Amino acid sequence: MKRPTGGGAAIDASPLEFRKAVVRLLIVTDIHGRPTADRCLSRHLPGAQCSLVRTFSLSELLDVKYTGERLHRELVENDGFIRAAERLARLSEAADVALGYSAGGTVLWHGVLNGLAVDRLICLSSTRLRDVRASAMPKPALVVFGKDDPNRPRERWASGSAVECCTVSGAGHDFYAIEGPALRLCLAWITRFLNLM
Question: pTM of this prediction?
Fold first, then answer.
C-alpha cells in the first residue's frame, strides 16, 4: 500500500488481519476524557465490530483526579507524557491498533518507544508530536491534524519517515470531537491505513 497523502515516505505496509474474530484496540483519550466510548472512531471501523477494546484516560495513567488544563500542565511540565507512557507500557497488553486523541496520541507514541506492543499507531491532533522526531517511530503510524490548528507540527515534519501525516482542511484542534465532514474524512483515512476497505 502506498501512502498517497501526507508528508511521510512511501513504505510497504502489510495489511493487518482485521478479518479475524477479535481486533485488539488500545485507546487513550484526550485531557478532557474525550471521546466517550460511544463517540470513539473505533466504533465506526468496518470489519472491526467484534473488537476487544481497552481504553485509558490520561488521568488514570497519571493516577490523578483532575482533567483539562491542570492535567495538560502535568503532562507538559512534570514529564507527564513519559510517566504516562511508561505506565501504559506496563499496564497494557499487546494491541493490533492503538488510537490516541490529542495528548493521548502523544502518550501512545512515547509508549511505543518505551516498549508498548502495537502493530499500528493512530494519533489524532497530537500536536506535542512536533517536539519529537517522526523518524524515531518503529511502527506504521498515521497522524492526523486539523489544518487550522496552530500547534500542529510543520508541514515537513514526517518527511523521510514511515509516518503518514495528513491534515484536514478547515478543521481545528478538536475536529475529532465534532461530528461532520472533517471527522468523516479522518475515518476514511483510518480505514485506508488499516486496510479495511
Answer: 0.88
Query: What is the domain-level CATH number for residue 141?
Result: 3.40.50.1820
Say whether the peptide bond before residue 35 is cis (omega within 30 degrees of 0): yes
Q: Is residue 148 part of a domain?
A: yes
Say how far apart CA 8 and CA 18 lie, in whole Å. 24
Question: What's the number of domains the chain is made of?
Answer: 1
Beta bridge partners of 121: 98, 141
pLDDT tens digits, 171-187: 999 999 988 999 999 99
Helix (H, G, I), strand (E, B) or coil at 53: strand
Residue 186 grid cell? 479522518
Cα–Cα distance between 28 and 114 in angstroms, integer?
A: 16
Q: How far apart are CA 136 and CA 53, in angstroms?
A: 27
CA nearest to 176, candidates 108, 104, 69, 113:
104
DSSP state of 173: T
Assess whether pLDDT exceeds 70 at residue 98. yes
